[in-house]
Design brief:
about 5% strand, about 100 residues, two-stranded antiparallel sheet, Methane Monooxygenase Hydroxylase, Chain G, domain 1, mainly alpha, DNA binding
Length: about 100
């Protein structure tokens, strides 16, 4: 569903969506593990390594969504005979918010 230049998550193909959901469930487990590590007073090094793994996993999810959004925006612009630069501009706005 697209309204007023907004891209919705339902534009992501079923396979990609399932992969994202699997990744997010894995991240959820990693975060619970991180909480346990802190409760168990594990070493700072172990906690930081686990936090880095969580961060990397979240970045992968975001990059998958962002790359899909760029492809979708470009396809929509081209289909309506529009300007691809407009799609890139919308993508860039979202990308800047992530980074």
């Amino acid at each position: 569903m697209v309204q007023h230049g907004v891209d919705y998550i339902d534009q992501i193909s079923g396979d990609i969506k399932e992969d994202l959901l699997k990744r997010l469930r894995r991240i959820e487990g990693q975060v619970r593990g991180l909480q346990r590590m802190i409760e168990e007073e594990r070493s700072c090094q172990e906690v930081v390594y686990q936090a880095a793994a969580v961060k990397a996993a979240v970045v992968q999810v975001a990059m998958t969504i962002l790359s899909n959004q760029l492809a979708t925006c470009l396809a929509q612009e081209m289909a309506k005979g529009g300007n691809p630069e407009a799609a890139v501009k919308r993508f860039t706005e979202v990308f800047k918010k992530f980074y």
